[in-house]
Amino acid sequence: MPMIRLTTPRGALTEEGRTTIQRDLAAVLLRWEGAPDTAFFRAQAWSYLVELPEGAHATAEDDAPRFLVEVTVPEGALSERRKAGLVEEATKTVLSAAGLTPGDALRVWVLVHEQPNGTWGAGGSVIRYADLVALAQHKEQADA
Q1: Residue 11: DSSP 8-state
Q2: What value does the mean pLDDT take over residues 5-26?
Q3: N or C: which end of the chain has fewer CB within 10 A?
Q4: Is the pTM for the entire model greater than 0.90?
């Protein structure tokens, strides 16, 4: 159930960055969540790109583009170490896609939303974190 959404002002990403950012961020999320690198799990990692129209974003100081990365995962899916790694790598991924330097890192915010157990559903059923763990283990064994 991992989901990642990047909100950015339109035109803030490079042409190449715009074409790759969604899959790049989804891969970052799956890696830090520890999900198996299989077609099934890649298909479950939803990635959204929301581009704001001109004039829809500013700070009290300037109009330089800012980037908001929102990550939604099941509660308990990310340890503190994994969260830190996810935030660091997602920030670097966005900076690269925007053609910015590490000095611009404060222009990228990453919010991790942990979805409480029993409050997410897919395919018409409530999915619990234990179900996802069991499914990942089953898929790993089947692929071995």
Answers
A1: T
A2: 97
A3: C
A4: no
